[in-house]
Design brief:
Elements lengths: L14 E6 L2 E10 L2 E2 H5 L5 H9 L6 H14 L7 H11 L4 H11 L7 H14 L3 H9 L27 H12 L5 H7 L1 H8 L5 H11 L4 H11 L1 H11 L17 H6 L1
Antiparallel strand pairs: 1-2, 2-3
Helix pairs in contact: 2-3, 4-5, 4-13, 5-13, 6-11, 6-12, 7-10, 8-9, 11-12
Amino acid sequence: MSNSEKPHTIRSRIWREEPEHDNPFATRAAYCRGYDVYGEMLGHARWVEMLYLLFRNEAPTASQADLLEALAVALANPGPRDASVHAAMCGGVCGSTAASSLMAALAVGAGQLAGGHEVFLAMEGWAECGTDLDAWRQRLAEQTAIPGSIWPAQEHPPGFDPHGVSTATSVKQTLSCLASCSSGAYLPWLQQNSSAMEAAAGCPLALSGVAAAAFADLGFSPEQGEMLHLLLRLPGAAAHALEQRPLGYKKFPFGTVELENESIKETA
């Protein structure tokens, strides 16, 4: 049947539903990539297995599920000093709705400084350079603006910390853990060549760079990695926003803001 004959039908390769006999709007059975979600997966599948299945066209292997779960733990809470979590906390202390606090975290955490788009750009590097160190050196030396992109020019090599002096311990621990449970090629290679990569970038490896290698090892595209990075960092933002909410804005360090009185300036 052609699209013109059923123009209002939603088409999806991810999800299929069967309606109840007495209510076409209620779901009797739902299938994700062919797996019976409520009849077979529920109570047996892990959260990360469902997550992987939604984004990929197949269920993860045991090692892939372990890697994604370890990555999810590493990304779950960037901490109160992270800009995205701080944005959510600002929403919380000001009494914003739950959705507003999370949207603030998403907006601030979507950019090119430890955000989702930085992961996207770093994953493009893995797709282009793979485990070719010379190709990485050339790419890291030629960071330029993308013609026609809505994003500003990159101010530092994606996946590296522009303000860092040495590799943070938490980044080393995360890379070591993820590389040990990865069946892919990128994380182990990154662990072996991190010093050379940091020398080429001129700054230390960041957690976003480790996350990008992990997403690439799991077979995700840069677009999928960017989306998952945004999603997996939300739990910490939500928890900190709720924690700050009852304390109120008078106990929250918004920072110093200078306000110039324009009327006084004009009459001076």
